[in-house]
Amino acid sequence: MTAGNLYQHTLQNFRRVAERCQIHPSLIERLARPKERIELTLNTLMTDGQVHQYEAFIVHHNRSLGPAKGGIRMSGTVTLDDVSALAMEMTWKTSLIGVPFGGGKSGIAADPKSLSAQDKEILIRSFTRSAIRHIGPEVYVPAPDMGTNERDMGHIRDCISYSAGISVTRGCYVTGKPVLLGGIPGRREATGKGVAVSVRMAAQMLGMDLRKARVAVQGYGNVGSAAANELHRMGAKVVAVADIHGVTHNFMGLDIEGLNEHVKGGGVVPSFPGGESITSQQFFSIDCDILIPAASANQITLENAESIQARLIAEGANGPTTPEADQILQKRGVFVIPDILCNAGGVFVSYLEYTQETQREQMTLEEVESRLEKRMESCFRAVHENAKSSQVDMRTSALELSIKRVAEAIICHGFLP
Ligand code: NAD
User: Best mutation site among 184, 223, 352 for ligand 1, i.e. most ligand atoms within 8 A of its Cβ?
Assistant: First the structure.
């Protein structure tokens, strides 16, 4: 699937729901386009002594509810259109989960797996130097996304403090950073834990006993591994896990602690000795009750939607289901927890990090987890109730609530000049 598709699919979903909500056509056009799309060329001196060029992108989609918020994706294939789609998704997500942020996203077109730790740090610092005018507590606050992590956020914070001559405790320029640099405990696991809370809510509603449920997870990075671990802790049986290299499968349930050790030691998922290695093509037809796509976009498509066995799909990834596949799943009665609800736990805890920094206090892990759980539950309930009363699916309901809120905020701002 190409990157262009993600942009088209995001736009298609937005227009469909905005028209359904009877948003004024001029507002629809305004929200269909990002406020700012910035393209950067990084000329970066790497450890091989050569200057390498990398493309990077920053998109601020909308800031009506607050500064743009959204992660930095590092991937060899990321494009400006991808980043624009993901920035728009962030506008809906922050609005839905009820935090005072708008939507933004960044991309650095480089394969993180091909870089040494030192070269990745150099590239992150090179990006930050070039992007510094577009980042700030009042403008755009980045965070980790695919291919970036806590360590990278620490380097961004350091680079900004150094370049701007400000202390590390002055203002929240980036979230998802190490706790010692103003980060918050539990941010790394927050998205995956939020996914697990959504799954628990949906299972209750569907009358599915989570302790008997079999789960398949695509992606074993930040989101997928935290979701798998949390569901395992809740008593579910994780029967399959996939990463970019392949899939490990065990009908009896995978030994998740063993898999964590295996991956931590540098092993890839399909070589885990506690499971049978199967092909990536077989993953979506695995016999399971709950399917969690937590890798990249456009994974559930016309080609595999009919063969999915799960009754419940929890979108840990952004944009994992194409609109055509979505229709098939709906017809088949599969319950889908849409991405802007399901994976919003990360941005909610980023908001806690932002507030703790502006108020100069330090939250405990217990406080963070309890607030995350409560917010995910109340948001899930609101989306579900709206879906029932409006007789729509969960994706339409979630988009409806979030788009209306952004449109109302724009009207509150007024239109001059
Ligand atoms: P990550 O880089 O930590 O991990 C990605 C995982 O997906 C890796 O295990 C990788 O091997 C696997 N993967 C990539 N392509 C794959 C493919 N084609 N098939 C199978 N596995 C594949 O990334 P992450 O931060 O966990 O993000 C995963 C998804 O969740 C992305 O769509 C991201 O936008 C979304 N998301 C992340 C956060 C966050 O807080 N990190 C928040 C919200 C949404």
Answer: 223
